[in-house]
Amino acid sequence: MAGADIRELAELALLDRARWRHLGSLAFPYLMFAPAFVLIMGISVVPISYAILQSFFRSPTLSLGRFVGLQNYADYLFTSNGIGSITASLIFVAGTVLIAMPLGFALAVLLSKPIPFRGFLRSVLIMPWLVSNLVGGLLWGWIGNPQYGLIPWLLAQIGVVLPNTISNPVGAMGAVIVASAWAAFPLVMVFVLAAIQTVPPELKEAAQIDGASAWQHFCHVTFPLVRNTTMVALILTSLHAFKSIDIVLVMTGGGPNGATETMALRVFNEAFRLLNLGVGSTGAIIIFVINILFTLAFVRVLRTEHGV
Amino acid sequence: MRVRIEPGSGRRLRRTRRYLGRAGQLLFACGAVAFAVGPILWAILTSLKTPAEIAEYPPTLLPQTWTLENYVGAVFENAHFLGYLWNTTLVVVVVIVLSLVVSTHAAYAVARFTFRGRDTLMLTMFSTIMIPGVAIVVPLYMLSVKVGLYDTIWVLILVYGAWLTPTLVWLLRGHVAGIPIDLEEAARTDGCSRIGAFYRITFPLLRSGLLAGTVLVFANVWNEFLLGYSLVQSDEARIIQVGIYSNLTDVGVEWGRLTAGAVAAIVPILVAYAFLQKAFIQGLSAGAVKG
């Protein structure tokens, strides 16, 4: 009798152990994931949710304050430089993309060929990517300085007079776009080059045997295979130009007269210079929403790439 | 239109075209290199000139008298510059350790197990990659004031850690999936615990992923400005990019010192890049998606 009891207990204990082990292995992935989850919830998800909530309220302090509906959004759009900053963002992003994409793409095609000094060229051409946007803006602000800069002087020698890169709206916008494209083209180059290198060389041989010219080969074989990567690079480049403030802040601070104040820079100026947190954080939400739209486009491109 | 073709001219034409093409490629490559490194070289040259020479017009190409006085002024005589470098190094190192530890565990969980809610968790996490810094800076500022971490390097460490972790999980997930599971199973039959198998077998095999992740964190944190500017006010906790910006606004347009400070901030990254090109390209490409 006693022996049976003991056996029963032992069986129970064994069962329990197995159950514990089973529970443990169920919990294991959750435990592994937990620290990342806590960090991201606390520092990304909760603050951004609070910011969305706050964009419908107004208060002079850090508390939530009084519900004002869409008033902050209306203020953001129609006070001070609302429309101007949207225009500035559009021009800045479009200008950056129009220079960085063709340049990065052409360099990728060039570097995919067996040219001399290829490794050296690739290492050197990536350098702007390593430099922070803030320092990049500083460097371009100096080399394009209307008074002492190298570039205005060089161009003046061949008879080209640049509009002033600080006080003229067109000159200032041109200067920040060039600096932004400088920072952006290596990403395009690296992404497209990586994609070109995955194109199987047999395809090229086959095309050659069929009598295709280099140009035909590029249009009908290489380009279709790197189109998605090019789209990804395009989206990332526009996204980065849209949301970053460093280059414009350092070079013009948004001037002259708001001509280069992009939407992202305006958030910064409103929140940290004019201490207008309500309008600043509302602008931030608008940027976030536009970012999501870019992201959806991004995901779509990735999907088509994987053929889903 | 009909053109009379002489024998041999087709080949000559093709050869001329090939040479022209080569020359065009060469010219394009040279132009691109000048565009890419011109501003950096010009800053280096400027930083080695005397202030009087910098203010000369027309500008001199090479320094007439080579001098390091701008570096002495910008880096050593500036009471805070070395402090900024130290703060940045400290933040970079702690964030590397923190975020890599956190994200290797998470990457292992999502790559090796299918568990209830995994896809939702992953979606939540990866969607935070797309939150741009400028959208979250105001709420983070308020939050850090409320919890009393405002104006310390700890707020930067936490924020950068959370900011880079999703990208690191994204990067490392692929690396974990690339390690054959048989190795862990073999270790477990030999009596290794689940977590032991992870630490002893999988973790060491993640080396190339961890290296790319380290570079990702280093390059992004070293070059970060916006959050560093908004969450820290005092010189004691300031990081390098903010220091360079405050030089611009405080010191004014003293280009010798400004370029010297900028060059001093670029050099560590360029040196690291010279040794770890492959990891840099992998890390920067993975980090390109981040907000």
SSE map:
The complex is a heterodimer of chains A (308) and B (291).
Chain A: H1 2-54, E1 57-58, E2 66-67, H2 71-78, H3 82-111, H4 118-125, H5 127-130, H6 133-143, H7 150-157, H8 169-197, H9 201-209, H10 214-243, H11 246-251, H12 263-273, H13 277-305
Antiparallel strand pairs in A: 1-2
Helix pairs in contact in A: 1-13, 2-13, 3-8, 3-10, 6-8, 8-10, 10-13, 12-13
Chain B: H1 9-47, H2 51-54, H3 69-77, H4 81-112, H5 118-127, H6 133-147, H7 153-177, H8 181-189, H9 194-205, H10 207-222, H11 226-231, H12 240-250, H13 255-275, H14 277-287
Helix pairs in contact in B: 1-13, 3-13, 4-7, 4-10, 7-10, 8-9, 10-14, 12-13
Description:
The complex is a heterodimer of chains A (308) and B (291). Chain A has 308 residues and is mainly α. Chain A has two domains: 2-54; 72-305, Orthogonal Bundle (MetI-like fold). Chain A contains 13 helices and two strands; from the N terminus they run αββαααααααααααα. Chain A has a two-stranded antiparallel ribbon with strand order 1-2. In chain A, a hairpin with a 7-residue loop joins strand 1 and strand 2. The N and C termini of chain A lie far apart (65 Å). Chain B is mostly helical and 291 residues long. Chain B has two domains: 9-70, no CATH class; 78-287, MetI-like fold, CATH 1.10.3720.10. Chain B contains 14 helices and no strands. In chain B, helix 7 packs antiparallel against helix 10 and helix 8 (181-189) runs antiparallel to helix 9 (194-205). The longest helix of chain B is centred in the N-terminal third of the chain and has 39 residues, at 9-47. Chain B is globular, with a radius of gyration of 26 Å.
